[in-house]
Amino acid sequence: ACPLFFCIFVILNFFCMCPKVSVIVPVYNAGAYLRPCLDSLVNQTLEDIEIICVVDCPTDGSDKIVDEYASKYTKVRVLKNDRNLHIGMSRNRGIDVAVGEYISLNDHDDIRDIHMCEKMYYRAVSSGAKVVFSGVSSKTVGDNVSSADDYIESLFLSLLSRRFLSRVTPHLYDLSYMNKHGIRFVDTKEVSPEDSIFNAVYFYHLYKDNENSVEIMNDCFYRPVDTGCNTNLQY
Question: Is-contact 112 232, C-beta < 8 A?
Fold first, then answer.
């Protein structure tokens, strides 16, 4: 009885320890923008997350910064590519080892509101959503985000320009659904735009499965930092 009880305890403990959200961050030459990015992740109000940094052979010391954060925060996991894979395949490496209930994606030089994971996770759980959308802040780093006005402007412009589905970073995706259908990113050495293709495939499966579990939040949590060092411009 004792071994059986111990096995049950270990299994239950494992599932209780699984993070709610896995944040995937491909890291290349992020420069001075990597620390603000990682700070916005390690300080999320939802503590039960894992931050998977996929270090893609940077040449500017970004790998040392990631190692520094990993040594300070147990929630930071590090994968190091043997060769430069670009953003698509680096994201896939992170997704393949992720154990969270949901996947969130972050570029290495962007920042997010510290409440992002918490609010989006509980919206997903309460609604049973397979994907939760939020807006993208147009404010610059250091500005206060006026959530309602900023969201309306962002959503309106995104719908007009078809950019609503051209990003993955402001959104939250169900990992089990991704794994069920084998949904992953394309190899960005060969094909782009990877975000639009990912969303198209994801929504194809939702349509095919007659899934209507899509939530849109009236919030802007994610701030792209237009520095000229953005991930897609590095390659």
Answer: no
pLDDT, mean of residues 29-51: 97
Contact 72, 44 (CB under 8 A): no
Q: Output b/e per residue, 81-112; b: 16+ Cβ within 10 A.
A: beeebbbbbbbbbbbeebebbbbbbbbbbbbb
The model carries a pTM of 0.83
User: Among 42, 47, 207, which residue's Cα sits nearest to residue 131?
Assistant: 207
DSSP, collapsed to helix, strand or coil, labels residue 72 as helix
The whole-number pLDDT of residue 118 equals 98
pLDDT digits over 94-117, tens only?
A: 999 999 999 999 999 999 999 999
Side-chain half-sphere CA neighbours of 151 within 13 A: 13
Structure tokens at 116: 């992002």
pLDDT at residue number 162: 53
Residue 194 to residue 122: CA distance in whole angstroms = 27
